[in-house]
Amino acid sequence: MSIPDDVLAINPDATVTVEHIGRGNHKVVMADQFYKFPENLLQLALDLPYTKQFEIIGNFPGVRASVNLDTQHIFDKIGELWGTKLYPFFNPQPVVFSGITNNNYRLNIGQRQPHIDKDITAMVYLNPAQSCVGGTGLFRHLPTGLERLSITPDQEIRDLADRLELSDEFLQSAEGYENFQNSMVFNPLFACRENTYINDGNEYWELLKLIEMKPNRLIIFDGRCFHSQYIKSDQFTEAFRVNQIWYLSREKKG
Q1: Among residues of the chain, what percentage have pLDDT more than 70?
Q2: Do 113 and 44 have their domain in common?
Q3: Distance CA 40, CA 246 (A)
Q4: What backbone phi and psi angles, to 5 degrees, belong to 93?
């Protein structure tokens, strides 16, 4: 496959917007017209072979593909926009594309409510304007009032555990903290009962912000904030929703 050298060229004239969401004033950075040649990047994404192997996609409700390209300038730019240096979780870090379709797809319980990522999440919407709809939703968990989960238990989590009169064992190990999250926040009873994404929320999840999907829009946010795809059941039934996705860390790995 012949890949243009400038397929990941960044547009120096991208329009940058910063918003702060929820009670926690969680930062969301948007850079519109992020790439200089987005049509070339979309074509590359469409030409790649995709997989739905669990080892590759985890609980992502779609398929993924990757290609090895020089990406350091992307990390540098995302860190500049975010306001601090950011690092990839893998070295080298491939370019990863995600595809979602609503065509005969059954969502599991975890996919029918918000989720969290490892640290900082960045993605670029690659669809052309005629197939851009919905976006990414940020949520508040109504039973607890939480808007994000820290990587390790912070004071907000400890205060919540005290109010709930939970044993300290929940917060003393990584396994205990994961059990706390799965029982108190990501309880299956809180998911949508229908085969649909959480979208506008339900009695357990409040939509704080819909980050609108636009062509060639980069978004950066704290992946520890509760978030989900905003896709209604009549959307993306024919064409894929195609994103480029980066999972980044504020700490250098390895």
Answers
A1: 99
A2: yes
A3: 19
A4: -100, 115
Peptide bond just before 143 cis, omega within 30 deg:
no
Q: 191 in a domain, yes or no?
A: no
| Domain assignment of residue 157, given as a range | 150-184
Whether 114 and 239 share a structural domain: yes
b or e along 131-140 (b: 16 or more beta carbons within 10 Å of the residue's beta carbon)?
bbbbbbbbbb
Q: How confident is the model at residue 254 (pLDDT cuts 50, 70, 90)?
A: low
Q: Let me know if 13 is exposed, middle or buried by CB neighbors in 10 A (0-12, 13-18, 19+).
A: exposed
- Give 169 or 225, the one with higher predicted confidence: 225
- Domain co-membership, 118 together with 218: yes
Structural domain tally of the chain? Answer: 2
Residue 179 and residue 59 share a domain? no
CA dist 137 and 127 (Å) reads 18
Are 142 and 171 in a shared domain?
no
95-105 tens-digit pLDDT: 999 999 888 88
In a domain, 162, yes or no: yes
Q: Is 135 a domain residue?
A: yes
Closest CA to 185 of 216, 220, 222, 142: 142
Residue 51 lies in a domain: yes
Burial label for 109, CB within 10 Å (0-12, 13-18, 19+), is: middle
Q: What is the average per-residue pLDDT within 185-203?
A: 96
What does the angle CA 185 – CA 189 – CA 190 come to, to the nearest 5 degrees? 50
CA distances from 188 to 114, 173, 197 (A): 11, 23, 14
Q: Are residues 171 and 84 in the same domain?
A: no
What is the phi/psi pair of residue 162, to 5°?
Answer: -65, -45
